[in-house]
Amino acid sequence: MVSVKDKLTLQEFMALPEGDITCELVDGEAIPKMSPKFFHSTLTGAFFVLLSQWSQNRGRVGIEWSVTLTRRGRDWVPVPDLLYVSYSRLAADWMQNEACPVPPELAIEIISPEQTFGEMNEKATDYLNAGVSRVWVVDPRAKSITIFYPDAPPQTKRGEAALTDSLFEGLQLTPQQVFQQAGIP
C-alpha cells in the first residue's frame, strides 16, 4: 500500500519549531530557503540600513520576516530577504512574534548564485498576485535592481538610475548607493 503524505496546513507550518534552517510554505510543503553567501548578506544589511532610515515613522522593515499570503489558491508563506510594510497596512502598535499578517508594500529578493532570474521573476509575479505592491529583484552579478509592478512591465535599474516610486514618497535611492553601502565593487 502506498501512503500519500498530507500537505501541511498554514497552522501546522506556523507551529513547526524554529530551527537553524529557514523554510517557506509552498504548495503545502516546508521548502528550505538557501543559505545566504557574503554578497547576499552584505546587500541585505545595506538595504536594511538605507530603508530603515527612510521608513522612520512610516512603517517597518524586516529581514527574512515571513509573510502569510495566498498563491494559486493555497496558503503561501514566503520569506523575502527584506520587506517593508507601512503603518497604514500594519499598525505601529502591532507587536506579535509571528509572520507578517498582511501583504507588504515591498518585498525584496536577492538572487543567490544557485538561483536564476527566471525563478525570481516567477516569484515576483506570485508576490504581486498575492497583493504585494512592489517587488525588487536584486542581481548582485549584474549590479541591477529590477522593479516589478502589478500594472506595468518590470523596469531594471543600474548605476545612478533612481529607484523613485510614488508608493515610497521621499525615498531617494539608487542601485549604486546600495551596492556601495554593501561594499560590492
CATH architecture annotation name: Alpha-Beta Complex
Q: Which class best fits the helix and strand makeup?
A: alpha+beta
Characterize the overall form: globular
> Count of DSSP helices?
4
Strand content: 15-25%
Q: How would you sum up this structure, described in words?
A:
This protein is globular. The strands form 3 sheets. Strands 3-6-7-8-9-10 form a 6-stranded mixed beta sheet, with helices on both faces. A two-stranded antiparallel sheet has the order 1-2. It has a two-stranded antiparallel ribbon with strand order 4-5. A hairpin with a 2-residue loop joins strand 1 (23-26) and strand 2 (29-32). It contains 4 helices and 10 strands. The chain has a single domain (36-68, 77-181), classed as tt1808, chain A (Alpha-Beta Complex), CATH 3.90.1570. It has helices at 10-14, 38-55, 117-129, 175-181; strands at 23-26, 29-32, 59-63, 69-71, 74-76, 82-86, 106-110, 134-139, 144-148, 155-158. By secondary structure, it is of the alpha+beta class. The chain is 23% helix and 24% strand.
Topology diagram in text:
Elements: H1 10-14, E1 23-26, E2 29-32, H2 38-55, E3 59-63, E4 69-71, E5 74-76, E6 82-86, E7 106-110, H3 117-129, E8 134-139, E9 144-148, E10 155-158, H4 175-181
Parallel strand pairs: 7-8
Antiparallel strand pairs: 1-2, 3-6, 4-5, 6-7, 8-9, 9-10
